């Protein structure tokens, strides 16, 4: 078609099969606003270099503005003839400016353009993802604030381990999200480098000003090396690692909500608006959001692996393989922009069954560690305290009774060190209250933790 950017040396048009394989405009069209922003900066630099006069620059910028509005309104659309977003937008410019439109390509290649566009897109969307993460962290913190004093059975190996505060548990899901936010911020430091000026790979013989372009587009600096400028996709791979790890965190939260809402646990009831039903079983209420959080981690991780694998053997500089970098990041952004608000809504509206949690907290001899610690405070080496408590648990397991049901005589039989005052530590309340060191599950440290987490989130 007449819109191709590279017709000159070719005898005819591309084969249909090639055109169909090579086209990217159906997915890279979302880069149009960023490509236009970069074009504005490039037009100014061409004018500064004396390659556009003042009148030409004015008409160029006006046409870019017009094209931008037409794209936003849907009045200008890519056609199947347009190979990619850059091709489509040059067509739009030519339609508006005639041959003047063809001047903008000087000193610039799709290789440095696409790298610039994708950085601009990702820097903006990393912020959108971050604010959706903040929303979920807020929802978890709000629930945590209500349950600082709610006892729950803390698990290891999905076996009852030690009682914890349910607020503490919810805040344990906030900490990874805070780290993900830090990772996004830290990533942006390295992503904020402008490839424009790299040209196809060797820079430009025209007097361009990559630093001015970088500044206008909100980057910290231009690239140091034009070959790296068009080859580097670290910013894509790093972004996909962060979204994959975030996906893993959401998946672990999702898995817990699936457990908590099961009949066997029964700790949490989802709001009807954030649960789904069954087409055949009228009684069903399913945690599909939580399951989709678990499931979508797979595609996020898949995107990371796809991009790393695509990059691993590529010779410098630009290779067409790199066109495969975009769909995984677009999919990661889309996935998270759907998933995070749904999870936030599910968490903030769920009802926590305090009664069920409190009843389950001491089950499974979860206070056995309290007995061992009680013995330690009496001077018994922990190794011996562990053995003694283990015998006590074995006795209770055989008799199918709880630790506090053992008679004074039986306590003595298990160990001379066990006297009736040990029963003072056999309460979930005292187990929680006794955990006062920073980071512990006692009400004091949990309230502190909540305060620190919400202070951190205020910075976002
Ligand atoms: N659509 C291409 C991509 O996304 C743009 C760069 C094409 N450059 C080239 N020399 N074919 O990677």
From TrEMBL:
Domain Fumarate lyase N-terminal: 15-302
Subcellular location field: Cytoplasm
Keywords: Amino-acid biosynthesis, Arginine biosynthesis, Cytoplasm, Lyase
GO BP of this protein: L-arginine biosynthetic process via ornithine
Catalysed reaction equations from the record: 2-(N(omega)-L-arginino)succinate = fumarate + L-arginine
EC assignment: 4.3.2.1
GO molecular function, one term: argininosuccinate lyase activity
Main location, first listed in the record: cytoplasm
Argininosuccinate lyase C-terminal domain boundaries: 365-432
UniProt keyword annotation of Cell membrane present: no
CDD domains: Argininosuccinate_lyase (cd01359)
Pathway membership: Amino-acid biosynthesis; L-arginine biosynthesis; L-arginine from L-ornithine and carbamoyl phosphate: step 3/3
One GO cellular component term: cytosol
Record Pfam families: ASL_C2, Lyase_1
UniProt family annotation: Belongs to the lyase 1 family. Argininosuccinate lyase subfamily.
Protein name: Argininosuccinate lyase
Species of provenance: Winogradskya consettensis
